[in-house]
Design goal:
single chain, about 100 residues, alpha+beta, two-stranded parallel sheet
Length: about 100
């Protein structure tokens, strides 16, 4: 057991993981939560439903403080870009 994971046992099998997540806001905390969900050991991540809500578009200032935001996200709705990060097909609209 490492010092960084005190109390964690590598032999523990997770029996249940949520089948759906609803994220209200994809700023600093919302993106960190989404990134963490992406680390969960799902046997088939394609069966997980993500409901992402945020009316804001990414801005240049978000690049330095939001874990998922990339330069290509600037000017696009955060929810749309985060959905693509999560595996959704790229949307047909500009936002």
């Amino acid at each position: 057991m490492s010092a960084l994971s005190a109390g964690y046992d590598d032999d523990i099998d997770l029996a249940y993981l949520p089948a759906a997540f609803w994220s209200l806001g994809l700023g600093n905390l919302g993106q960190a939560a989404l990134w963490t969900i992406g680390l969960l050991p799902y046997s088939d991540a394609g069966l997980v439903s993500l409901y992402l809500e945020d009316v804001d578009a990414s801005e240049l200032g978000n690049l330095a403080i939001q874990v998922l935001t990339k330069p290509g996200w600037v000017g696009r709705k955060k929810a749309c870009s985060a959905a693509v990060w999560g595996g959704a097909p790229f949307p047909n609209n500009d936002n």
